[in-house]
Amino acid sequence: MKLIRLIPAAAVLALLATPAAAQEAPTWSFAIHGGAGVIERASLSPEQDAAYRAALHRALEAGRTVLANGGSAMDAVQAAIEVMEDDPLFNAGRGAVFTAAGRNELDAAVMDGTDLTAGAVAGLTTTRHPIAAARAVKEQSPHVMLIGQGADSFAASVGLEQVDPSFFFTERRWQGLERELRRQNLPIPARPAGAPGPLADNNLLPQPPLNERKFGTVGAVAIDSQGRLAAGTSTGGTTAKRWGRVGDVPVIGAGTYASNRDGCSVSATGDGEFYIRASVARDICARIASGATGQAAAQAEVDDALSLGGSGGVIVMDLQGRPAFAMTTSGMYRGAVSSSSPAGVAIYADEAVRP
Questions:
Q1: Judging by DSSP bridges, how do beta strands 118-124 and 145-147 pair with one another?
Q2: Strands laid side by side in the 145-147 sheet
Q3: Lowest mean pLDDT among 4-13, 36-45, 79-88, 209-218
Q4: Could you read off the pLDDT of 116-153 as tens digits, one per residue?
Q5: Catalytic machinery residues
Q6: What's the pTM?
Q7: DSSP code of residue 32
Q8: DSSP letter at 281?
Q9: How many CB atoms lie within 10 A of CB 268?
Q10: How far apart are CA 122 and CA 134, in angstroms?
Q11: DSSP per position, 105-165
């Protein structure tokens, strides 16, 4: 006689109620961006295209290593962003754009989705890794945002590496500043003290597109094996910025946000003034909390916010480990990797993120 095993009705109902996506959700997931802008195939040589893709893969590997070994989402975000801060291809850390006064002034922010703690810095000039400073503000100070000399002093006081401001200098960013100041009919400042000669870094990685003003802000979003969400963003701002300008990156809820309660983490890139006015990152999470998918929430928000003016993009991670990428530009340097999928990158708006 053949025995038939009966499955309890409650178990059947539970199986039917479980979405397929939830059954297949990765145990950890990670995504990055390296800036959005008018990035078209005709504007990048094959060498430039390859250099950016390789740089994105290096950053993804840094985050993947942390998460695959059971590390936290916050550790992964910081590890990947530090790689990009040290890469002169990106407008963050070494390779940041210059202010109209000829300085590199760096901004960054991090946020932990589990408890909504956050840290931000603006106008750093001597701290090698602004993203580390932002995290230190979150974890080792009673504040959320520190600025200028005080922020650098705090970073030094907690042991973060300090460098001469000339560390951040790259010739191509200086040339971008000169072009922009001429366009605005503004005076060109003297080269910074300690900067190399004009020909010193001509043999660095292939040069990016000539319009440097809207490229290179870096960011990362992650969910780790314990379900913790985190986000981080780092930037040099915009070329020839004046009067101590600060964009959206260190403004929690504008360019950076994470919330397990809402089920998302966000990092933005683009014209920061519009992200601030529309509180883009926080609003994306609110849309997701109200039932929208990450992709739908991201695209709707950037479309709405940037209809005010400007352009840009965002990356989003939800609680199921699904990354989303949305932009109003022709390209955004971006990539993703998870416990169930290999690392993939993309540059142009019409291509998928793939290995």
A1: parallel
A2: 145-147, 118-124, 106-112, 229-235, 218-223, 29-37, 331-338, 341-348
A3: 4-13
A4: 999 999 999 999 999 999 999 999 999 999 999 999 99
A5: 217
A6: 0.90
A7: E
A8: H
A9: 35
A10: 9
A11: -EEEEEEETTT--EEEEEEESSBS-HHHHHHHHHHHSS-SEEEHHHHHHHHHHTT--B--G
